[in-house]
């Protein structure tokens, strides 16, 4: 994506980590869902221009934390500020969210372009565009975002016909279309082939260089490692690590219940894992809830 | 015969009502199908029956003539309240959508039958509301029907961007700062207005069919949300006109005939679409350029999802 809208320029000037209002500041966040405490007393900060990975085993509360930060699930305690504003008054057009991909899309046929344009709704309102002008502007922006995800050819195809990986890329494009200053990604690389992940990481790298802050939930940090400023590790709904990316766990690939099916089309033999393991911070984390 | 139909004043009124309702109902239905609330219209239809009876009761108490003059406003109020309540309960997560709908179904019918008896009528008074009575559409009814149908069309089409966003992915809409609760309540209210408007044409028990069946038909061949909506609306108009004209020639109940026509069209469209799909889907032919062939690639615990990878359902 080409950067450089007006909004981008202002945020880029504040891109030095720590020197400006953080893009995301969650303090003492607790979440209770159907009587179960999912998160307790979680602090999470994403500084301006920072790229932060959110790690942890399945069921540790990563997705819930992301949703709590974005107001999708209610807070039972604590507070969240986005760009210095209370969550209720957050500058939503500056925030792009890529949810974890649901099972195959169903329902009314919907083209990739239609899905991506839904991401440009609040952006159009911010720029005072409505009606026909909004439609033209969002169409171009949506096509550009799809092209960035190498999906320009699929713009007019129903997402119901797309593969899982292609659908995931449509959701990423929907978040990119408003050129967010904070990008929140929930396992964005699940089910996507390596070449596309590399392209995606390169896109994120360019956005980061332009000052975009990123919070990304990951299972494998391999592809993202060069971009990550910091890693936060959750375990049973609490933060157990906040700092440098923990070193790789040599035994990770053989962890029980952890099946890898990497068969890269252009593959060297599968490398034994420059992937983060959690044993240093959470000895039993890989043992696996679930 | 066509001239005859067009010059009959009764038929003119009925046609105008049918065209507007036929056009508006599927527009709301498209959003409902996308939200997987295809049965919401049914639940609202049942609760509207209580409203009809409540309107009678008020009319009887106040001594209005005819006694059913408040039936339509009563249905409208009950339907909107019921629809918004169901959305609210669902959003609070106190109850799942299907259980909430079930309670509306039973409560609506029971309340209607109870109240009509108390109002001094019998449940047979409710028949024309249950199954439609387009022949009894008066000029006053027509003005209401037309105005409300146009309102539904205007709101449904004018706000289709935000309404699509909440119907397509509620979480994402919330994270975009859209007023999700307001929009879902608005959609429920639109559905409620549609139900009351369509009540005279097809009847409360069949209202939902006019919202949903044309959408199901359009889904069989349309390839985008906006085209599905446009086609569904068109199909709604066509079956409404066709059903009405046929009942002019043959003595058949118009509401039921309109719904049967819609379902027949659905059957034909699905059969044709199925046949076409079977012919088109050669292995590896999903319309994507060759570079996409290797797209299936599982990064992590995703084996189950990934299986579906490129097995495209074209």
From TrEMBL, chain B:
Region annotation (Disordered) maps to: 281-314
Q: What is its main location?
A: membrane
What's its membrane topology? Multi-pass membrane protein
Question: Is RNA-binding among this UniProt entry's keywords?
Answer: no
Pfam families named in the record:
ABC-3
Report if keyword Transport is assigned.
Answer: yes
GO biological processes = response to zinc ion; transmembrane transport
Can you name a GO cellular component term? ATP-binding cassette (ABC) transporter complex
Instruction: State the source organism's domain of life.
Output: Bacteria
Q: InterPro entries of this UniProt entry? A: ABC_BtuC-like, ABC_TroCD
Q: Which UniProt keywords apply?
A: Membrane, Transmembrane, Transmembrane helix, Transport
Q: Transmembrane region positions?
A: 14-33, 45-64, 70-89, 101-122, 142-166, 178-198, 204-222, 229-250, 256-273
What compartments host this protein?
A: Cell membrane; Membrane
**Protein family membership:** Belongs to the ABC-3 integral membrane protein family.
Put simply, this protein is called Zinc transport system permease protein
Q: What is the lineage of its organism?
A: Bacteria, Bacillati, Actinomycetota, Actinomycetes, Micrococcales
């Amino acid at each position: 994506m080409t950067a450089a809208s007006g909004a981008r320029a202002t945020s880029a000037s504040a891109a030095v980590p720590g020197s400006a209002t953080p893009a995301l500041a969650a303090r003492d966040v607790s979440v209770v869902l159907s009587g179960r405490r999912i998160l307790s007393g979680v602090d999470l900060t994403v500084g301006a221009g920072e790229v932060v990975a959110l790690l942890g085993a399945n069921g540790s509360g990563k997705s819930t934390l992301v949703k709590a930060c974005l107001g999708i699930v209610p807070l039972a305690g604590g507070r969240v500020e986005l760009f210095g504003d209370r969550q209720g008054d957050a500058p939503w057009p500056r925030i792009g969210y890529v949810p974890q991909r649901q099972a195959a899309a169903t329902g009314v046929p919907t083209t990739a372009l239609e899905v991506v344009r839904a991401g440009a709704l609040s952006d159009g309102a911010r720029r005072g565009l409505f009606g026909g002008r909004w439609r033209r502007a969002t169409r171009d922006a949506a096509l550009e975002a799809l092209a960035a995800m190498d999906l320009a050819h699929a713009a007019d195809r129903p997402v119901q016909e797309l593969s899982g990986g292609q659908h995931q890329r449509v959701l990423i494009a929907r978040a990119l279309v408003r050129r967010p200053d904070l990008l929140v990604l929930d396992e964005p690389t699940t089910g996507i082939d390596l070449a596309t992940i590399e392209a995606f990481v390169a896109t994120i790298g360019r956005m980061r260089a332009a000052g975009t802050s990123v919070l990304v939930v990951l299972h494998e940090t391999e592809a993202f490692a060069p971009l990550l400023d910091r890693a936060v590790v959750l375990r049973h709904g609490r933060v157990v690590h906040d700092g440098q990316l923990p070193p790789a766990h040599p035994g990770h690939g053989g962890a029980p219940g952890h099946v890898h099916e990497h068969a890269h089309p252009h593959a060297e033999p599968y490398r034994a894992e420059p992937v983060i393991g959690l044993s240093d911070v959470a000895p039993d984390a890989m043992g696996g809830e679930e | 015969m066509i001239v005859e139909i067009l010059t009959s004043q009764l038929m003119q009124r009925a046609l105008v009502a049918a065209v507007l309702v036929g056009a508006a109902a599927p527009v709301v239905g498209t959003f409902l199908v996308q939200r997987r609330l295809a049965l919401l219209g049914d639940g609202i239809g049942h609760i509207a029956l209580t409203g009809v009876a409540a309107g009678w009761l008020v009319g009887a108490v106040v001594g209005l003539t005819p006694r059913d003059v408040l039936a339509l406003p009563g249905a409208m109020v009950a339907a909107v309240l019921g629809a918004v309540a169901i959305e609210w309960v669902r959003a609070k997560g106190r109850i799942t959508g299907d259980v909430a709908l079930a309670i509306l179904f039973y409560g609506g019918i029971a309340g209607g039958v109870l109240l009509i008896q108390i109002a001094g009528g019998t449940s047979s008074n409710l028949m024309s509301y249950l199954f439609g009575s387009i022949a009894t559409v008066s000029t006053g009814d027509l003005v209401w029907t037309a105005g409300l149908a146009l309102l539904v069309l205007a709101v449904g089409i004018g706000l289709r961007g935000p309404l699509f966003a909440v119907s397509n992915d509620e979480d994402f809409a919330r994270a975009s700062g859209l007023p999700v609760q307001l929009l879902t309540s608005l959609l429920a209210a639109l559905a409620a207005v549609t139900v009351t408007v369509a009540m005279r044409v097809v009847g409360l028990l069949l209202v939902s069919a006019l919202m949903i069946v044309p959408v199901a038909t359009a889904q069989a061949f349309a390839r985008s949300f906006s085209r599905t909506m446009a086609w569904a609306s068109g199909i709604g108009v066509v079956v409404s006109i066709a059903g009405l004209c046929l009942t002019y020639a043959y003595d058949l109940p118009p509401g039921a005939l309109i719904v049967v026509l819609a379902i027949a069209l659905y059957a034909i469209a699905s059969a044709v679409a199925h046949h076409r799909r079977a012919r088109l889907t050669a292995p590896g032919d999903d319309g994507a350029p060759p570079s996409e062939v290797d797209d299936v690639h599982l990064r992590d615990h995703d084996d189950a999802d990934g299986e579906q990878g490129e097995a495209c359902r074209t």
